[in-house]
Amino acid sequence: MTYTGAACVGVVAALVLDLWVLRTRLVATRQWWAAYAIVMGFQLLTNGWLTGRLIVTYDPDAILGSGTVPFLGDGRIAYAPVEDLGFGFALVLATCALWVWWGGRLRGRSDLASRQGGVGRVRSGGTGRRHVDERP
Amino acid sequence: MRHLAYAAMLAFCLLGTLPLNWFFELGVLGQVRRLVLSIAPVFVVFVLWDVAAILAGHWRFDPSQTLPVRFWGLPVEELGFFVVIPLAGLLTYEAVGVVMARRRVRRSRGVLR
User: Fold this and answer.
1) Nearest chain B Cα to A105, which residue?
2) Residues spanned by the domain of B35
């Protein structure tokens, strides 16, 4: 499989994890997309450093672009192959989905009622509560 | 100094995001158990992906711009990457949550007045 194919699989796998496995549904929230917009901005900056300086180099056969490393074009954004955006999206979405999911479960086990309302719920984006309610 | 080029990028990410934990009183770094449970599975999967990609020749790292310590062909920075970036993402996500919650409170107060 090429990196292009692997990146697509990564994105789909992260979406499946978020929507159907953990059912955290972060991609249905404004909080996720606002956070991801910030993360993506900094990814373009820091990944541009890694790829523009040729700290990481890619096999032209594995990516959409050819062997050149332009700032924009030839399958590249800020020097990095567009596939890296899929890679980063999957990495951060999977982590955040797990974080929210564990937030619900760990809270359900330790300090039950006290955190269901106020600040704790707001801080986890409101997504942890469902899992608390599911517990017997 | 050239060997630190990749490590410098990780340091930049940490310097930019760790302060969010205290600035917005997120309490993320205090939840060690939850952090480990959230980051470890992602770390394992992405390191496996990375090792497979290197074996398949999808990408490679410049030895002159990375530290000489390698694990399964990965520079040590690359292992750090899969801890630093998920952590930076979590801190950003939680900080955005706090900012949005504060805005909601401010807006609802505005309505009450």
Assistant:
1) B34
2) 2-112
Residues of A in contact with B27 (CB under 8 A): 123
CA B10 – CA B19 distance, rounded (Å): 15
Against a cut of 0.90, is the pTM above it? no
Residue B74's φ and ψ, nearest 5 degrees, are -95, 135
pLDDT over threshold 50, residue A128: no
CB contact under 8 A, A96 and B5: no
Q: Residue A124: pLDDT above 50?
A: no
Chain A residues in contact with chain B using a Cβ-Cβ cutoff of 8 Å: 1-3, 6, 10, 30-32, 34-35, 38-39, 42, 46, 49-50, 53-59, 62-63, 88, 91-92, 94-96, 98-99, 102-103, 106, 122-125
Q: Domain tally for chain B? A: 1
| Rounded-to-integer distance, Cα B6 and Cα B8, Å | 5
E runs forming strands in A23-90 = 56-58, 72-73, 76-77, 80-81
What is the domain partition of chain A in residue ranges? 3-134
Tens of pLDDT, residues B55-94: 999 999 999 999 999 999 999 999 999 999 999 999 999 9
Q: Using the beta-carbon criterion (under 8 Å), do A123 and B94 form an inter-chain contact? A: yes
